[in-house]
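Bumping with the actual sequence this time:
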Amino acid sequence: MENETKPLLIAMMGLPRSGKSTIVASLSRRLGAPIVRRDAIRLALHGQRFQAKSEPMVKAISLYMIRALFLSGHEVVICDETNYSRATRDSLREAGWRTQFYHVDTSPEVCKKRAVATKQEDLIPIIDSMWARYEPLGDDEEVYNPSYRCPDCFRDDEDITVNGHAHGCVFAHNWVG
């Protein structure tokens, strides 16, 4: 019962272009939760989506931001990141909060199609590399189970599975024009 009184970190999990950020925007509004987005930290730090030598600093800043948000009184914080490896996910688990993972299980093929559609072809080898190194959630990793669908359309999208279950549209209408 003590664990349920701790603040909650909802850590997204999924490939680039899987729909994580789209889901996060709605989830943030619904829960009134701030978002820590490593892509935004990267852009603020060095103006690029990725720079390998800066990743340790990006990770540290992300954790400091999460801690600071909890210390300032937020009960829920959302971390918008791929979190495809167990080591990355373990770094988000701390004694001061509960961590639950929200897995957006979009196929690599769909993610690559979205990368092409958004003129981000440079993401294709990154998607392939991440998929090759993907580590599924372990039995000891808690899953976040949202209980809502898109308020705009309520339709199903077979391209996206969330936490192993078919999810309502997951805002697919934002992806398909």
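The tokens above came from a reply further down the thread. The two ends are 46 Å apart (CA to CA).
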